[in-house]
Design a protein that fits this description.
The chain contains 11 helices and 17 strands. It is an alpha+beta fold and about 350 residues long. A hairpin with a 7-residue loop joins strand 3 and strand 4. The model has no long low-confidence stretch (mean pLDDT about 90).
């Protein structure tokens, strides 16, 4: 996570840049109570205003941001301090295991690792790491690096809009924070799957992130595949995806055949994560207990049942909203609600967490 200033206790709001949408949310936290939503909103922005993760048309995005704050908020945002997500697909991540060493030596080892395995110069990256486990045998951590061009373009945009940027982090980290708040009944490691519009992010989570990855192909691709296979327009294909998906229906066979390439890639990537975890050979290691889906694409009927059958493991869609209080604010509809999971995770970020 990249932190940018030092006001430890001031409130902040979360902002999530999707492929073509911007979401915002502010939460208020009080000890012993569920986080309460103060305000939230979503708006489209021109997808061509961002290229390879960098904002190339800041005026177009700034216009959308202005419209979001003036016309598309439910409730209100009371602070200009913002924590922002960066798509996990635009970051480089790599798990590391190190022998016992000082924090200074860990930082040096992380930068050496980045220079060796990341295909661009470390001088053009912001590099950070999260410690997954530390004991007498050494340290496990997840290295995350993001091109400076991506971060800097977002900082410039947000500051030009009058906002004070306090942190950036990958979308999967924000989603995992919501999972940690909402799924307190399970103590076993979980595989998290964030099904976006153009890609799918995956992570192995056990109180912290151990490994993550991204595969190309998301909800938009599924809609296109259904459209082409069934000979219907994109609007009809979108309805088929959300109303029938791969759940039990007379359309199941055709739809599942249409989207088989994405489903196969997803299963293979999950299997790869399971193999990585099983080969770690850590004492008293718990078995992966569940698969949890989230994001707009997770609304497709039958997805959880399909993954459970293919991988012989319980699978479910994350429903965190029983742990987040909307108060008197109108709730988003079911499909739109799933799109707010990542920004809710960013809004849950404790300002003190940025500096520890």
């Amino acid at each position: 996570m990249r932190s940018l200033n030092f006001y430890h206790d001031q409130p902040l709001f979360g902002l999530d840049f999707g492929h073509s949408t911007i979401k915002v949310m502010q939460l208020a936290s009080e000890a012993g109570k569920a986080p309460k939503v103060l305000g939230y909103g979503i708006i489209d922005y021109p997808p061509d205003a961002v290229k390879d993760g960098s904002v190339i048309n800041p005026s177009a995005v700034a216009k959308s941001l202005h419209n979001l704050f003036t016309s598309h908020l439910v409730g209100s945002i009371s602070t200009r301090r913002v924590a922002c997500t960066i798509p996990t697909s635009r970051t480089y991540s790599r798990p590391m295991r190190l022998p016992p060493m000082s924090d200074e030596d860990i930082t040096e080892a992380v930068h050496l690792e980045a220079e060796q395995y990341i295909p661009i110069s470390s001088a053009s990256l912001y590099i950070d790491y999260d410690v997954s486990r530390k004991d007498s045998e050494g340290t496990e951590l997840l290295v995350v690096a993001t091109p400076k061009s991506i971060i800097d373009s977002h900082v410039s945009l947000l500051e030009s809009a009058g906002l004070e940027v306090v942190a950036f982090e990958p979308t999967m980290n924000a989603s995992a924070r919501v999972f940690a708040v909402a799924d307190t009944s399970h103590d076993e490691p979980s595989i998290l799957i964030d099904f976006g519009s153009v890609s799918v992010d995956l992570a192995l989570f056990d109180k912290t992130m151990f490994v993550n990855s991204t595969i190309v192909g998301g909800g938009n691709d599924i809609t296109l595949m259904i459209s082409q296979r069934l000979g219907v327009n994109q609007e009809e294909a979108y309805a088929l995806k959300n109303n029938y998906g791969i759940g039990v229906s007379e359309k199941r066979g055709e739809i599942q055949t249409a989207i088989e390439p994405i489903l196969n890639n997803l299963v293979k990537e999950i299997q790869k994560i399971i193999r990585y975890y099983d080969e770690r050979k850590v004492q008293n290691q718990k078995k992966i207990g569940q698969i949890v889906t989230m994001g707009g694409g997770a609304n497709m009927p039958g997805l959880s049942a399909y993954l459970s059958t293919q991988l012989q493991m319980p699978a479910k869609m994350l429903e965190p909203w029983h742990k987040i209080d909307f108060g008197n604010l109108a709730l988003p509809d079911d499909i739109e609600r799933s799109m707010y999971i990542t920004v809710a995770g960013e809004a849950l970020l404790n300002p003190k967490e940025i500096f520890t």
